[in-house]
């Protein structure tokens, strides 16, 4: 296995044709991006798939923080850009591989999710080149104009200037293509963050205000040990509210167990509800195992450091942070394994 596959919304996966590619490099090196992306020969690719607005951008920002990389938009670009560059990680937004700009898609009646509107062959060739340590010159998509900019111009804007009505209409128009091209990617993912309506509130009108989030982790994945609650292999339902964890209505419930997902054996960690006091997350963290943290309380520290990020008071932020730790650990294992193989080859 060369990388982790994830789906947020979302899903995490190794070769994800829609979403974001995060490139991790074992040797620190400044990169010129996006006109030229240059990496070392020890590149690990993390594929992150999901539809617009499901949390991919927040996820990669949490991941960059876990890596201690300080990845940020290129100097002179928009501070809210989806393009992030650092010493260890570079994030490439796969919207950059649209082969048709917004006017052309509209003229042909295609959504941005349709394979006919994207150059996945170029994406594949460039990611392959980057993994091999070769520099690439890539396109940059402009979300404001809906056009493809020259490679040296970074204008991948998060603020697209669209009204709520136009966004809603866009989501509805994209739904068939989401079902056809994006949602099926979950079956290839090693980890999936699934966002669902809460089961804590009986009133349907209030359900959307609280989220139930599931972290689905595939079993028997090399370099990836699923997180578990209390006792590995058991089925757990836990309401942690009490003196150590404040819970206003409707409360918080955690669950852990096993199942199958697209025919694969998986373990599932679930959080329903939200935190009142984020610092009290430490109580929950002490009962989670296989987090791949570097020190006691690192998950709580990361969550507090980014309390202003979307989802920081519910399971989306917690599970994004946990997956960040797992990706860091996976990356370190892969690099160590490659270094060991190289050392053995030298001895031979």
Automatic annotation (TrEMBL):
This is Phosphoribulokinase/uridine kinase domain-containing protein. PANTHER family: URIDINE KINASE (PTHR10285). SUPFAM superfamilies: P-loop containing nucleoside triphosphate hydrolases. It comes from Digitaria exilis. Residues 45-150, 153-201 form the Phosphoribulokinase/uridine kinase domain. One of its GO terms (molecular function) is ATP binding. Transmembrane segments: none annotated.
